[in-house]
Amino acid sequence: MKKTLFLLTLTLFIFCAFPAPEAKAFDPATMSMATGLAMTLFQKASPYLIRGLANFGKGCVKVGKDMVDIFRLPLGMGQVMFMTPFGYFNKGVRNLVLGGVAPFKLCVHTLLLPVVLFVNVNI
Fold first, then answer.
1. 82 within domain boundaries
2. Does the pTM exceed 0.85?
3. Distance of CA 4 to CAs 13, 15, 52, 92, Å?
4. What is the domain range of residue 90?
5. Which residue, 54, 101, 102, 95, is CA-closest to 78?
6. Of 16, 79, 91, 103, which residue is least crowded by CB atoms under 10 Å?
């Protein structure tokens, strides 16, 4: 209890003693000069941004598919254990294998999401 109270007090002290710095406004003249440069850079980079976001969307779809594939493991287990007399053994083994591999694929695809923004990686 003492340790928790001490850590709580220390955390509150740190956040109250050292507040986040306030944002300061830019000079309007500087903003007007930076706007032209920013628009030029955006126009030149827009094809790459669009392609990167499209690749990122494809990567998110892969991650979602892998999340759904994780549920194949218990499905396959049920098919192998209870549905074997009805001819579901082969499908159950297939679902067991796909469900067992899915968490690893999920980890790989999740770790590759930042890379997919810049490079089209097909794994």
1. yes
2. no
3. 14, 17, 45, 49
4. 41-116
5. 95
6. 16
